[in-house]
Amino acid sequence: MTSNKDSLIPSDNSSVSSAADDDASPRSENPSKTVAHHIEQRFSGPLPPPKILEQYERVLLGSAERILKMAEKEQGHRHSIQKQEVDGVFGLQRWGQLFGFLIAMVAFIVGGILVYLGHDWVGGILMGGTVVSLVTVFVIGTRRKPEKENDEADENE
After folding, report:
1. Which of 123, 102, 103, 104 has the alpha carbon at shortest distance from 113?
2. Model pTM?
């Protein structure tokens, strides 16, 4: 029985020396080209391309189904997080509008009472200041919305 080591050693030493002699000869008769190929494949997202998914399935039966379930679970989680975020933002906006309305109403009522009691200047300043504040908040709020939309569009690209 011969070992694997013996089978790798050439039995004819002359073939080795003739190959070495060929390297010393000029290459003008038999020009050769070396071509290098570099193949790079990338994918993004929760799922690999179908070809790679098929290879996963060949390696471990049921792995493709597990990967699909994992991607579906991740998507569901992402959607629930986004829903919570949107609900939270709308909730804060509702509370802000409610408190702003209550503060404005209290200021108008107190201003009206002051005018009724004969403190025209103080009541007028309180009510006028409230109106100016509300208009300012409204104008600044409408100007900032397009900027935020542009920022969000830049982030999504």
Report:
1. 123
2. 0.48
